[in-house]
Amino acid sequence: MWTCPDCGREFHIPNGWHSCTSGRAVDDHLAGKPPEVVEAYHRFEAMVREIGPITVEPLKSRIGFKARSTFAGASFTQSTLRASFALARRLDDTRLHVDSYGGRHVHILEVTDPAQLPDDLRAWLAEAYELGSAGVGKRAQ
């Protein structure tokens, strides 16, 4: 692991490109959001934490969840949680928006209420965690 001497973030690639971010907290991202969105975020984070040991990284524009590499995240609009996770395969689910690049497929679920977090999200997060635990070397076949 390589630690950036400026911001203290850890990466598995020495001198990996990143934007140094310090002094940001999860509460900064949640400030001013509707209570349902805040509750949805906390439920999403709890789902992620159930899987295994993680690092929560509040960055400038999102909150990242890392195993060895980042496998899930949360970002926000004023009234929406954008819960995301990366898989080596593309899911065909109308609730998800998918961005594909570099052998990974980032799935984004937009919710305004914790009840909109589907039960199958737990299995998808577990799969994403496995991929994130393997690091960047494990790609889609």
Describe it for me?
The protein is an alpha+beta fold. Helices cover 26% and strands 28% of the residues. The chain has helices at residues 26-30, 35-51, 121-134, and strands at 2-3, 10-11, 55-58, 63-66, 70-76, 81-87, 96-101, 104-111. Residues 137-141 have low confidence and may be disordered. The radius of gyration is 15 Å and the shape is globular. It has one domain: Yope Regulator, Chain: A.
Q: Keywords, please?
A:
141 residues; alpha+beta; Yope Regulator, Chain: A; six-stranded antiparallel beta sheet; two-stranded antiparallel sheet; 26% helix; 28% strand; globular; disordered C terminus
CATH domain topology: Yope Regulator, Chain: A
Placed side by side, the strands forming the largest sheet appear as 3-4-5-6-8-7
Taking all Cα atoms into account, the compactness measure Rg is 15 Å
The number of E-state strands comes to 8
Global geometry: globular
Portion in helices:
25-40%
Tally the helices.
3
CATH class: Alpha Beta
Secondary structure category: alpha+beta
Calculate the mean pLDDT score and round it: 87
CATH architecture annotation name: 2-Layer Sandwich
Element layout with pairings:
Elements: E1 2-3, E2 10-11, H1 26-30, H2 35-51, E3 55-58, E4 63-66, E5 70-76, E6 81-87, E7 96-101, E8 104-111, H3 121-134
Antiparallel strand pairs: 1-2, 3-4, 4-5, 5-6, 6-8, 7-8
Report a brief summary of the structure.
The protein is built from three helices and eight strands. The chain has helices spanning 26-30, 35-51, 121-134, and strands at residues 2-3, 10-11, 55-58, 63-66, 70-76, 81-87, 96-101, 104-111. The strands form two sheets. A six-stranded antiparallel beta sheet has the order 3-4-5-6-8-7. A two-stranded antiparallel ribbon has the order 1-2.
